[in-house]
Amino acid sequence: MNKSKVDPGVLRNFCVEILKAEQFCSAADEIVDVLLEADLREIPSHGVARLKRYIDERNSGHIKLNTTPTVEFETALSAVIDGNGGPGQCVSRFAMGVAIAKAKADLVGLVSVRNSNHYGITAYFSEMAAKENMIGVAMTNSYPLVVPTFGKEAVLGTNPLSIAIPYGSDSFTLDMATSVVTRGKLEVYERLEEVIPRGWAVDELGIDTNSASEVLENFNKRRPGGILPLGGSGEDFGGHKGYGLSLVVELISAGLSIGAWSAKTYTGGVAGVCHFFGAINLELFGELESLKESFQTIIDGVVSSKRAEGREKIYYHGEKEREARKRTLSEGINLDPKTVNMLLMLGDKHRIEIPEAFLQG
Amino acid sequence: MNKSKVDPGVLRNFCVEILKAEQFCSAADEIVDVLLEADLREIPSHGVARLKRYIDERNSGHIKLNTTPTVEFETALSAVIDGNGGPGQCVSRFAMGVAIAKAKADLVGLVSVRNSNHYGITAYFSEMAAKENMIGVAMTNSYPLVVPTFGKEAVLGTNPLSIAIPYGSDSFTLDMATSVVTRGKLEVYERLEEVIPRGWAVDELGIDTNSASEVLENFNKRRPGGILPLGGSGEDFGGHKGYGLSLVVELISAGLSIGAWSAKTYTGGVAGVCHFFGAINLELFGELESLKESFQTIIDGVVSSKRAEGREKIYYHGEKEREARKRTLSEGINLDPKTVNMLLMLGDKHRIEIPEAFLQG
User: ipTM of this model?
Assistant: First the structure.
């Protein structure tokens, strides 16, 4: 694929200028920061490629810019926040900020959020807490794409879940969709005209399929069928476990905030996405350095265990993303031609100076 | 399989008498209560079938009976507890009791435990909190049987994780090993001389295998190989996610308690199993009845969605176990002949009167 390498700082400024020209005002910086973090980690599905979609969602009224999140209920250790339809990144940085402030003062901060929007990579928010030597928890429900075990209707979102735990100078960060794959992965297979493995998705009867385009077409036509939970079809490979994790994300995000569960998101002109953020201060369990050593012993023990035949390395979670980040910070971010074209179009629309890297691309 | 049906009360008394005769004293009731709860739910792998094993572990010094758990570190919201080698059920009921008491007083209770033993079904402890209108969290590390993604050495336990959330007059209870299957399932396939599906386990080179006996023999001979994390081999079906969940369980149980991680359990004559218990009071998020309604809306919405072709029902987590419990409470518990023989042998050893049900079996 023909790709352009762009300096992260240049890309950031260009995207912020676009969003500001689109009247995103003070939200522009926060949104681009979170999107750029995905591109730095080479997770393009959650990167600046989303810019146009966010602009469309602002136009359709799903993303509201003249609002700020409000705290609807609060204790020393918790809050329920109404995002009031604001951009997911802004609502979520605010909400995790509240959780962290509570965990600094009283060791625990648990914040449930309703009526928000897509927030980008989940790890961004869990790592906000890990940077403060806390265990960070973040999760969100999302547009319904996933079928429950023994079901055929996509009523659950891919419902990602992230847990970040301080490790070394950085963090162990698990960030996982509770589905076996994401819609983005199906789109890649469709583009390449490759069959998808059985265990990823089901057709409109709820039967395993290996056609990505069938699943995507069913989504578009709002017919039954969808992506399977982690563990796949039925119970033989633990599909009911992935389904359970997905339900936990629903109950903790939409349930605790009394917001819209995934099947009800993006209905009636409202996105209504719900999140949950937790910050757990390590002071709850003793002396910080001893706890960090304890984490290190475990992770080092696992990654230094014997490798399977033909495998180069056992990774811990967040390690690949960290390596990618180092690479992109020094070498630039790879953008696919579709994303470059979208950015050029938006830059052109607002007569913003096009970064040289794009012109050389 | 030839099975005996036994009245739960009769079985309970018989098992308590056996453990008392084996000098388990006051621990006997607590241990049997937790084991029986598994049999009531038709999870025989964690039921009274374990009695002999616990007696053996007491004999080998892994389970210590002359100790009580001690609180080694404490805040208003948290505790680190040393199980001092006591029976897992007793240590864990005590630890979850501490978590619940803290969550009653201050809305959150988080308790990390080191130096304990096998505790039975994880759901038992998460549901202790759910019964108090709290969200209950329980997890434990365990004897190493699971290989990390791209690894071939079983350094992780099956590391189960349970989350219980009040629902209706009962609870939604997810209770899942973070591995794709448990050792018990491999043993069933070995007994039936059936091949296991690819994606369950790897051989001593770390390559997928369909031989249960190969995997079990490798365990016995302490050779590499083992069970795969939820999501299976490699990353195509999300095996790295199951591996990540397993690591989270290690970091939260052994990491926070500075105890033994799975690879180090059952070494040097010490079991050293680590747990974590959390109790989250729903008062943190508003009015109880509104929150319970919110949970109900979500769960009811999911289970009433369209069923896949050929499927009778979409379950929520804990529902099958609840149905089984109703059945066994009225019809009796099914025990397999091996378990009946073990109990008869122990009853005979201590000249305890044998329940009639066993004699008719």
Answer: 0.97
Q: Count how many Cα atoms sit within 13 Å of the Cα of residue A86 in the half-sphere of its side chain.
A: 24
Full set of structural domains in chain A with CATH: 1-59+305-361 (1.10.1530.10), 183-227 (3.30.60.50)
Interchain proximity A247–B316, CB inside 8 Å: yes
A120, exposed or middle or buried, with CB in 10 Å at 0-12, 13-18, 19+?
Answer: buried
CA distance to A69, A84, B146, B221, B312, per residue, from A92 (Å): 9, 12, 35, 50, 40
Identify the residue among B299, B302, B309 best suited for mutation to test binding to A, counting A beta carbons within 10 A and taking the highest. Answer: B302
Q: Is B110's CB within 8 Å of A284's CB?
A: yes
Shortest Cα distance from A97 to chain B (angstroms)? 17
CB pairs under 8 A between A and B: 256
Rounded to the nearest angstrom, the minimum Cα separation between A212 and chain B is: 15
| Closest to A89 in 3D by CA, of A60, A110, A69 | A69
User: With an 8 Å Cβ cutoff, are B251 and A112 in contact?
Assistant: no
- Would you say the pTM of this structure is higher than 0.90? yes
pLDDT single digits (tens) A120-140: 999 999 999 999 999 999 999
DSSP secondary structure letters along B251-264? IIIIIHHT---GGG
Nearest by Cα to B92 from B49, B128, B59: B128
**Closest chain A C-alpha to B319 CA, distance in angstroms:** 12
Contact B35, B46 (CB under 8 A): yes
